[in-house]
């Protein structure tokens, strides 16, 4: 059986501080570009998995800004970005980037979008930053150092019974997946206080961290969608995982106050929230 302390990445406090400072600055710059530079006639540059799953010209510009900024300062690091940035690197550090989490919200002028940047050391997320410029909010966390919103410490909400829990979720872009998710939602909704669908996984995870949601779940997320937000939620006291016994993944991501998580995760398993 593995020892979590032995298996944890070896990373100095100085390196954590450096990675956090870089992630905060990169997210700030990208957020300002996106907020102030959004064209009135914003166009869709391409589609990804379906015509609903769009990438805008600003997604591409944001990712180029972030990767360029980080590469100048840490040229040996690797990258994994939603819009194609991919490099192995040689330092053991990899940046996981979502240049606009909530692209459809951004396209329509809705405020719930964010820049999400995580730094991983030897595969473990050690720094997470989620900047939501239209909210005037930046959440961040360092592994083992707690979670913060605009530099103030945050904690999850005290857990209510599941029947009184406010739960966030999201939907995929493929029609068949959306239909399956709607069926799960129909079974879940009578068992909780209510459901919220904000359109940004990173923001939803931060909302769990600061007590605006009791829990959040979604199928179909990619690493750039949840890497930063999951760390922030965990450092704020949330439990996070995927299916029972598994980490958060494309198959399922669940986060919540511990008691709500304990009730919600097995229910989602029984409802088949992990498959289309």
Fold blueprint:
Elements: H1 4-7, H2 13-36, E1 44-47, E2 54-56, H3 57-73, E3 78-81, E4 86-87, E5 93-101, H4 103-108, E6 114-121, E7 124-132, E8 137-142, E9 147-149, E10 152-153, E11 166-169, H5 175-188, E12 194-196, H6 201-209, E13 215-218, H7 223-235, E14 239-241, E15 253-256, H8 258-271
Parallel strand pairs: 3-5, 11-12, 11-13
Antiparallel strand pairs: 1-2, 3-4, 5-6, 6-7, 7-8, 8-9, 9-10, 13-15, 14-15
Helix pairs in contact: 2-3, 6-7
Kindly describe this structure.
The protein has 276 residues and is α+β, with helices and mostly antiparallel strands. It folds into 2 domains: 4-153, 2-Layer Sandwich (Fructose-1,6-Bisphosphatase, Chain A, domain 1); 162-271, D-Maltodextrin-Binding Protein, domain 2 (3-Layer(aba) Sandwich). Helices cover 37% and strands 25% of the residues. The chain has helices at 4-7, 13-36, 57-73, 103-108, 175-188, 201-209, 223-235, 258-271; strands at residues 44-47, 54-56, 78-81, 86-87, 93-101, 114-121, 124-132, 137-142, 147-149, 152-153, 166-169, 194-196, 215-218, 239-241, 253-256. Strand 8 (137-142) and strand 9 form a beta hairpin. Helix 6 (201-209) packs parallel to helix 7 (223-235).
Uncertain segments are 1-6
Q: Determine the fraction of residues in helical runs and give it as a percent range.
A: 25-40%
Q: What is the average of the pLDDT values? A: 92
Strand order of the largest sheet: 4-3-5-6-7-8-9-10
Per CATH, the architecture of the largest domain is: 2-Layer Sandwich
Radius of gyration: 18 Å
